[in-house]
Amino acid sequence: MANHWSLLILLVLSIYFVANIHTCLCAPNITAVCSKQERLALLKFKHSVNDVADMLSSWVSNDCCQWERVHCDKVTGKVESLHLRGSEDIYGVQECLVGNEVSSSLRHLRNLKLLDLSANDFRRSRIPEFIGSLKQLSYLNLSYANFFGVIPPHIGNLSNLKVLDLRSSKYSYTYNYNTLMSDDMSWISGLSLLEYLDLSNVDLSKAQNRDMVFYMMPSLEMLSLSRCNLTNADLGTLSNSSTTLANIKNLDLSDNHFKGQFPGFFQNMTSLEFLDLSDFKFSLSRNSTNFLSTIHYFPKMLLSSCGLHNMHLSPNHLNFTTISIIQHLDLSRNLIEGRFPSVLINMSSLLSLDLSSNMLNSSVPIMPNLLRLDLSKNNFTHIEDVGIWRQCHLKELTVWANLFKIELSDPPKNVSECSQYAFEMLDLQKSLKGVITESIGQLTKLRYLDISKNSLEGVITEAHFAKLSMLKELYIASNSKLTFNVSREWKPPFQLIRVDLSSIKIINGFPQWLPTQKKLQFLRLSNASITGPFPTWLRKMRVVEFFDLSHNKLSGPLTNLPNEGSVYVLLLQDNLFNELIPISLCRMTGLQFLDLSRNRFTGRIPECLGNMRNLVAMQLSSNQLSGVITSSMVPQSSMLRWLTLNDNHFTGKLPRELGNLQELVMLDLGDNGFSGNIPEWIGENLTKLAVFRLHKNNFTGSIPRSLCNNSYLQILDVAHNDLTGPIPHCLGKLNIMITGISIFEYSGYSAYEENLTQVMKGVSLKYTTTFIYVINMDLSSNNLVGEIPVELMSLSALLGLNLSNNLLNGGIPDNIGNMKALNSLDFSVNQLTGPIPPSIAALNFLSYLNLSHNNLSGRIPTGSQLQTLTDPSIYVGNKDLCGAPLPKNCSNNEDQTTMHKNSKAANHKSNKVWFYMDIMCGFAAGFWGVIGVLLFKKHWRHKLFMFAEEIVDKIYVAVVLRIDKMKRGREST
Fold this sequence. Notes:
- The chain is an alpha/beta fold.
- Among the domains are: 36-172, Leucine-rich repeat, LRR (right-handed beta-alpha superhelix) (Alpha-Beta Horseshoe), CATH 3.80.10; 361-529, Alpha-Beta Horseshoe (Leucine-rich repeat, LRR (right-handed beta-alpha superhelix)); 665-892, Ribonuclease Inhibitor (Leucine-rich repeat, LRR (right-handed beta-alpha superhelix), Alpha-Beta Horseshoe).
- Helix content is 15%, strand content 21%.
- The chain is built from ten helices and 63 strands.
- The longest helix is centred in the C-terminal third of the chain and has 41 residues, at 896-936.
- 39% of the residues are buried.
- Residues 15-29, 171-177 and 893-910 have low confidence and may be disordered.
C-alpha cells in the first residue's frame, strides 16, 4: 500500500515539474494582457486631457499593453512604464497633452516603475500628491509640464526612485517667473537611492532643510540646482558636504546668487566631470592665487557671466597641471579684452572653447587640438585675427555678430596655407562686409555655411561652390546688395537639406537647379525679386517640408504647388496671386502653417480647409475674399493658434464652431462686414486669447462680460462697430493688462510673422514681430454709455486706452494716475464732465493725449510729462477748461463759469443748513411749549391725565360691548 502512495506522489510531482518547465519555456511566446482596472485608469487619463497631437490615438484596443507609449511586464501584464513626453517639432509647434490636472486614475497603476509626463501643459496645476503612492517608481520626470506651486512632500515616499526631474518652465527664468517652489526639502531624505536630481528653476529661497539636498543622497551622480535662488549660505553647506558627494559627476549651480572667491571645496569631488558656475559673481583680488588652482578633474567647465578679466587668466592665478586636462571650457560673457589669453594656448587637451561676448581684438593663435571655437560678439577687425586660414584642424568656427564688419579676404600670400582644411561648420553671421571671394571653395569639407545678415556685395556664382560637394546647409540670407547669379543649366555638386537665399537678389527667375536637390527639406526664397508663376517642375519636389516664397512678385493663379503630402509650412504672403484659393491646398494634410495674406485672392474660402486637422496658423488677411464663414470652413484643428481673416469682405454672423478652437491665441477678424452680437462663447471657450480684434465691423449689442475670463488678453480691439451699453467693470481685472507678462513671453508661443494694425497715438500703426509687446484696449467709435469704470484704472501695464467717439458721461476717474505704463490716452468726443484729475500728471510715459470735445471744466493740471503736450487741440471743445496750453487764462481768478458753479453749490449747501435749523427750532418750541406748561402747572397736568383716562375707559367699554355682541350673534345662528 505504501508503494502505491509513493508512486502516486511521484507521479504528481512529475506532472507539476513538467508543467513548470513547459510554462518557463513557453512564457516568452505568451503575450500578457493588461488588467481591466489599469485599462480603465489609462482611459480616464486620456479623457482628462486634450490630446492636440494625437499622442494617445492608439489607446483604443482592449489590450492596453499594445498601446503606444505604454509598456507592460511580459509575464504579469502589469503596466510598468508610461512614456508620455511631449515634444516640439522643428517649426516650434509644441506637440503635447493639455489638461487642467493629472488625473488621479493613474494611482491605480501600482506597478508603475517609469512615469514621464514632461514637456506637456497641465496649466499651472499642482503636482498631484497621489504620485507618492506609486512606491515602485524608479524614474519620475515632470519637467517642463507647466506645474505650479509647492512640490508635494509625498514624493519623499518613493524610496526606489533613482531619477527625479522637476525642472520648471524653460521660459520662466528669463522673466523671473518661477513656477515651482518648495517650503521644506526634508522629503528628499527618503530618496537615498537617487542618482539623478534636476530642480532647475525651482524656487528654493524659502525652503527649510534644503541642506538635505547635499547630505542625504550618497549615490547622487548628477545634480542641477540652476536658477534656484540659492545664496552663499547654500554654497557653505555644499562645502561642508562635499565629501558626501564624492560620486557626483555632473554639478550645475549656474544662475544663482553666489559671489566671492572661487570655491575650493570642489577638490573633494574626485568624480566631478562637469561643473557649471555660470553667473557666479567672482570678486577675486588681483593677487589671488587660488583661482582654478584647486580643481581636480573637470573635463567640462562653464564659467559664463562670472565677471572674469585678463588678470584672472594670468599664470599667477592658474594651476597649469590641472587646467591642462580641461576639454570643454566656456568663458563667454566675461570681461576678457584685448589680446587672446596666452594661458589658453597651453591647454593641450582643449577640444571646445567658447569666448563669445568678450572684447578680444588680437590674433587668435593656432591651437592644433581645438575642434570647436566660438568668438562671437568680440572686436576683431581682420579675418586673419580669427584664424580662418590658419586653423587647419578646426572643425567648427562661429564668429557671430562681431562688433566690426570684417572682409572675408583670400589667404595671405606670405602665410603657408593648410594642405587641407577640416572646417565642417562655419558661422559668420552679422560679421562680414565686402565681396565673398572664391577662396571659400577651399573649405571642401564644409557641411554648414552661414554668411547671412551681413553687408556683403557683389555676385555669387557657380565658382564659389565648385568644391563644396559635402555641403548640406547653406544660408546667405539678408544681404541686400548681394546677387546670386548662376546659369539655368547649373547642376550643383552638393545635395542640400536646408537652403535660405531670402533677401538677396536672385537672377534668372526661379532657381532652375532646385529640382536636382533630392533631399531638400527647408527652402526659403522670400524677398528675392522672383517674378511670374510657379514653374511646373515645382509640384514634383517631394521632400520640401518648409516652403517660403513670401515677399516676391509671384503672380497668376496658385498652381503647381509642391507634392501635397510633404509640406508642413507654406508661406506665400505678399505676392500677387489672384483668383480662387485652390482646393489642392486641402490635400496638404500635414500642413501646419498656411499664410496667403496680402495677395489678391477672391471668392469664398474653400470648405475643404475645414478638414485641415494639423493647422497651427491660418492667415488669409488682406485679400478680396468674401461671403459668409460657414461651419465647414472652420479648421477642425485642436492645435490652431493663429487665425487672421482681417481686411477682406466677409459678412454674416460668426459660426459657433469657432468656439471649438480652444488653443487660439490670436483671432483677428477686423475690417470686414461681420454682424450680430459678439458671442459669449468667445470668452467662455477661447480662454487663451491674447489678441482679439473685431475692428471696423458691424457688430451690435453689448460687450460680453465673458471676455473678462480671457486672462491672457493683451490686445482688445472692438472699435468702429455699433456696440451699445456700458463698459463691463470686470475688464479692469484682465491679468496681462495688469502684470504686463505676455503669454508670448513665458509660454514660448511665437509667430513666424504677423502684421497687426492698432490705433495708437491717434494713428494706425502696423506691428510685425513687435506686436507681442503691445498691450492695448480700443473700444472707440461705438455707442457705449455710462461712466468710465474706475476698475479700468487698475490696468497698470496698459500702453494704450482709447474710448473716444462714444456716449460716455460722468467724470474721468480720480485715480487715472495708477495707469503708470500708459503711453496713449484718448477720451475725445464723449460727454465727460468735471475737472481733469490732477493724478493724470503722474503718467510719466504719456506721449499722446486727447480729451477734446467733452464738457470738462476747471484748470488743466500741470506736470513734467504734461508740459511736453503743448498742442491746444488736445483740450478743444471743452469751453469750461482753462490754463495752458489753451489761450484761456485762469491764473488770477478761477474760470468764471467754474466759480459760478462753486458759488451755487456753496449757496445750496448754506440753504440746507438754514432749513434744518428752522426745523429744529420749530420742534423745540412746540415740544417745550407743551411739556414746559405741564411741568410747572399741576392743575393742567391733572386735567390732562384725567381726560386721557376717560378717553381710554370709553374706548375699552366700546370694544368689550362690541365683542360681546358678536359672540351672541354666533350662538343664535
